[in-house]
Amino acid sequence: VSGNCAEINVTHTSTTLAACLPSSSLAVLTGTNVTAYVPNGYWEGGSTGVSVVPIEGAGTPATIPTAGIVNSCSSNSATGETVCVDNSTNVYEITGSTLIHTLTSGSNATAGFSGGSCNNCGVAVDALTNTAVIAGGFSGNTSGDGLQLLNLSTNTFSAPYPSEFEVSENVSVDPNRNLILSPNESNVYDLYKINSDGSLSEYSNPLSVPGEFDSAAEDCTTGIALATQEFSDDYLYLVDLTQASFTPPSGGNTAGTWTAPGQTINLFPSGDFDFSAGTSGISVAAGTTHLGITMGEFGGNSFAAFQLPATSGTGTPSFVDWVGAYLPNTPDGAGFSSGFDPHTITAYTSPNNGKAYGLVSDWAIGPPSYVAVIDLQALLAAPRWASDAHIVDPTVDLIGTGIVRYVPVP
After folding, report:
1. Which helix (H) or strand (E) holds 15?
2. What is the 3-state secondary structure (H, E, C) of 177-243?
3. For the residues of 243-302, what is the DSSP string, one character each?
C-alpha cells in the first residue's frame, strides 16, 4: 500500500520448492547445478546401480554401485542428499556420486501392483522436515501395504504404518498441509495425515472413475492435487485439498474418510492422442509456475504438459490449458520408449532461469540411455494442430526449437 514497492521473482532453491514431489523413479537435485538420479532398475527387473546425470551447470556423469536393484530415488535440495530404495529392504543415502549409508527399512512383506511387486516400492523426501517417506509392503492390516518414515537428520526409522488400503504406485508428500497423497489401483484416494508426534492417520475417499488410479502429484502452492488413471487412455483426476473435509474412523475401521471437490477430465476425447497404458506417471514442478507433466508407461513416446490454476479454495478445480506431443527419436536414432513402474518421470523448477522442466528417462534398448529435458511452458506455447487444439502441430521440431533436449545417461 506504500506505492513504492517492487515485485521480485525469486528463483533460488528453497525447502518449499524442493518438498512437493512424487515418489516416481527419477530424482532431481537442484541448485546452481541440477542433477538427475536415474535408477537402472524397476520393480520387475533391470540392473543394480544408480546413474548420476548432470542436467544444468557443471557436473560429472557417474554410476553409483548398489547391492540391489534400485527402483526409485528422491532428493532433498536443501541438504544435497538423495535417498534411493531397492526392490528388497535396502535404503541408500547418497551425497553427490558417493554412497554414504545403506540402511534397512522395516518392510516385512511385498506389495503388489499391476507393474510388479516389491518390499520397498518408492520413496519421496519431504525437504521441510528432512524426512523420507517409504512406501511398500508392511503386514499388520488389511492391505498388506503401508508407509514408513525415515528421519534423515538422525537416520532413524519410525514404526511402520500398516495401512487399511493399499498404497499408491507413487505417493506424494504435501509438506504445507502435512499430508501424504496415495491414490491406489482400487480407486481409493487415500490421504495420510502426518501428526505432530510423527505418527500417521489414514483417511480414504473411494471414487468411481475410468481406469484405475496410479500416481499422485500436487501443486503445493495451491493445494490442487492430481491422480493419473491407468488404462483409461487420457483421463486425469483433480481435487482441491484446501477444501478437504475429514471424518475420523468409526465402526472398527482404522481409516477415516475425506471428501473435497474434484473431477475427472478427459484430455483428448477426440481419440487422436493416446498414452501407452493410459496416464501413468505425473509430476508438478514445485514453485509458482503451476506447470506439470504426465506420461504413459511400458513403452510409447506420447506425453502431455498441463497448466493448473494459480488459485484454489472455491469451486471444482480444472486445467487452465494442456497439450500433448510425442518425444522424438533419441540421438542414437532409437525411438523413445517410456519406462516401467514406478514411472521414469519427474519435474522441477530451474533455480537458474525460473523455468519449469519435465524429465523423462527412456527404456528403449535396456537400462536408461537418455533423459529428455522438456521445457513445459515452451511446449504449451508451441503451435497447435488444426484438428485438435490440445495437440502440438506435428510439424514442430521439438529438438530444433529447443523445447526438448536429450542428456545421455552414463
Report:
1. helix 15-19
2. CCEEEEECCCCEEEEEEECCCCCEEEEECECCCCCEEEEEEEECCCCEEEEEEECCCCEEEEEEHHH
3. G-EEE---TT-SEEEEE--EEEEES-TTSS---TTBS-EEEE-SSSS-EEEEE-SSS--E
Please give the grid coordinates belonging to residue 170.
Answer: 507413487
Query: Which tens digit of pLDDT belongs to each residue from 39-83?
Result: 999 999 999 999 999 999 999 999 999 999 999 999 998 899 999
Beta-strand relationship, 384-385 and 356-361: unpaired
Q: pLDDT tens digits for 174-192?
A: 988 999 999 999 999 999 9
Contacts of residue 80, defined as CB under 8 A and 6 or more positions apart, other chains included, come to: 29, 31, 95, 96
Written as nine digits, the cell of 58 is 557443471
Residues 6+ apart with CB under 8 A from 177: 223, 241
What CA–CA distances, in Å, run from 61 to 50, 64, 405?
Answer: 11, 10, 17
Reading the block at residue 229, the C-alpha cell is: 488413471
Task: Indicate the pTM of the whole model.
Answer: 0.94
Cell representation of residue 166: 493399499
What cell numbers appear for 244 in the block?
478437504
Q: What are phi and psi of 103, to 5 degrees?
A: -110, 175
As a residue count, the chain comes to 410
CB atoms within 10 A of CB 158: 16
Q: What is the largest CA-CA distance in the chain?
A: 61
